[in-house]
Amino acid sequence: MDAALTSVVIPTVGRPSLRALLEALAAGTAPVPGPVIVVDDRPDGADLDLAGIDLVDLRVVRSGGGGPARARNIGWRHARTGWVSFLDDDVLPDPDWAQLLVRDLTSAPTSVAGIQGRVRVPLPEDRKPTDWERTTAGLASALWITADMSYRRAALSATGGFDERFPRAFREDADLGLRITAEHGTIVRGDRWISHPVRPADDWVSVRQQAGNADDFLMRAVHGPDWRQRAAAPKGRRSRHVAVTATGAAAALAALGGRPRTAVAAAAAWLAGTAELAWARIQPGPRDPAELRRMVLTSAAIPAAATWHSLRGAWVHRRAEPWRGLPDLVLFDRDGTLVVDVPYNGDPAKVAPVPGAREALDRLRRLGVRTGVVTNQSGIGSGRITADQADAVNARVEELLGPFDVWQVCPHARDEGCDCRKPAPGMVKAGCAALGVLPERCVVIGDIGSDVEAAQAAGAAAVLVPTPVTRAEEVRAADHVAPTLAAAVDDVIAGDW
Q1: Longest dimension (CA), the chain
Q2: Which one is catalytic: 41, 88, 215, 333?
Q3: Which residue range forms the structural domain that includes residue 311?
Q4: How many domains does one find in the chain?
Q5: How confident is the model at residue 364, as a pLDDT?
Q6: CB atoms < 10 A from the CB of 34, how many?
Q7: Residue 1 placed within a domain
Q8: For all residues of the chain together, what is the average pLDDT?
Q9: Would you say 207 and 298 are in contact if contact means Cβ atoms under 8 Å apart?
Q10: Quick check: is 333 catalytic?
């Protein structure tokens, strides 16, 4: 684990506000207590312009456009600190933010798994706020929002982090907060402050926001019908939106069916419902012509949009299971799995990776998943090779396949009765312990039954990739079999582990 107190993870789509945030961190009254990891979530490959930002440890990783939940997950998986602190790319920390962050984190008892920063939303002083400004102002009192939130990395690892089925910056923070407080500790408010300016928005932003109704059904599927109370989330107007939409549809159907009285009555009900919604949004606002126009037009569209997204979410998430996320660590057998098996090999020149090995490993590394090797080397114990020769071969493997986070080597002969030689679980447990990973957040990929048995005995998951030396009964006994190493890693990344 990194000696720094916390990593600061900032997902971004390249907005100009990112530079203002980073400059505010650099200009604070105290240095940031750890690396700043900017996660570039733009789908293209253009570099971020961060020239001139005076931060001691500023890193950039790419997430490829998968959305804020995925970007944050990639960020915290690249972190090696005990705490991970999240900031949105459009906030401005107070000058003493880093100083108070240190105080928040160092004073937290072990029962605290998360610490939420305090948020202010500057609003106009010369007029009442618009509907969009009031929506943004709600962030100041919301629970667990990632505009400024710190979590223990262990809690993020144990829960799998943010649920990437939430495609936008909505509900993914409440979902994580519910999962963490259910099993891993409390979440409290700290003393540090950020400002969250109101971003510019077009006239139809409130209609697009109705997509969040689908996310509410994911919340219900994984947390039960009382999730709103536990997450302190307002109930909203979904039932009214459904009623207004139903009257509009009834008016249209009645008109098409030649029933004018029914059509008029239903249309009047739709108009009354739309007018009620519009006035509820207009009344607390500035009531200028531009705002009136926005509220009237969008209030006519919101009920139908909300109803459509509700129906879509109810269908898509009807069988949703709790989020598991990626494993924290994937341990690989060496011979026959990562490299072509050369019995008792002590010659680095004979090391040849299996097809696709480097690409598969790099896919995991880009996602922040740690990798390691667990290998039986009984040739050392039997005298066929020396420990130095084994080390030289391992160094060549690492040279060809990239850096591994942990190596575990059993040097004992087959009959020595050690607890590290697979199928014993010793190396798997030791690899997890060395990185502070729970065995249940680890996957072992190997080519024979002893790899699978070692994983199961340690409490880890296993994927068998058969080779010509794999016995048929070992394949039949394995819970998860993949045809190639690349396919095994594909399955892990897809969540099938």
Answers
A1: 97
A2: 333
A3: 202-323
A4: 3
A5: 97
A6: 26
A7: no
A8: 96
A9: yes
A10: yes
Q: Verify that 370 and 464 share a domain, yes or no.
A: yes
Q: Say if residues 116 and 173 touch (Cβ distance below 8 Å).
A: no
Measured in residues, the chain has a length of 497
Written as six digits, the tokens of 276 are: 């009620």
Do 69 and 162 contact (CB within 8 A), yes or no? yes
Q: How would you classify the pairing of strands 58-62 and 92-93?
A: unpaired
Same domain, 299 and 336: no
The alpha-helical segments, DSSP class H, found in 147-226 are: 153-159, 172-183, 205-208, 212-223
Regarding whether 276 and 368 lie in a shared domain, the answer is no
Cross-strand partners of 410: 376
User: What is the residue type of 219?
Assistant: M
Query: Do the beta carbons of residue 485 and residue 356 sit within 8 Å?
Result: yes
CB environment 207-230: b (16+ within 10 A), e (fewer):
bebbbbbbbbbbbbbbbeeebbee
pLDDT for 227-263, tens place per residue?
A: 999 999 998 899 999 999 999 999 999 999 999 999 9
With beta carbons less than 8 A apart as the criterion, state whether 93 and 86 touch: no
List C-alpha distances in Å: 262 to 202, 245, 358: 37, 16, 68
User: Does 46 score more than 90 pLDDT?
Assistant: no
State residue 29's pLDDT score: 96
* The two three-digit tokens of residue 140, written as one number: 């100041």
Q: Which long-range contacts (CB under 8 A, 24 or more apart) does 431-435 make?
A: 431/329, 431/331, 431/372, 431/374, 431/406, 432/329, 432/458, 432/460, 434/406, 434/408, 435/328, 435/329, 435/370, 435/372, 435/405, 435/406
Amino acid identity of residue 361, one-letter, is L
Does the annotation mark 173 as catalytic?
no
Asked if 392 and 351 touch (Cβ cutoff 8 Å), the reply is no
Q: What is the pLDDT confidence band of residue 465, given thresholds at 50, 70 and 90?
A: very high
Residues 17 and 128 reside in one and the same domain: yes
* pLDDT tens digits along 396-410: 999 999 999 999 999
Interatomic CA distance for residues 300 and 26, integer angstroms: 46
Options 94, 131, 335, 447, the catalytic residue: 335
pTM: 0.92
Nearest by Cα to 481 from 445, 457, 456, 435: 445
142: domain CATH number is: 3.90.550.10
Amino acid at 69: A
What's the one-letter identity of residue 338? Answer: L
Residues 315, 264: one domain? Answer: yes
In a domain, 10, yes or no: yes
Helix, strand, or coil here: 453? helix
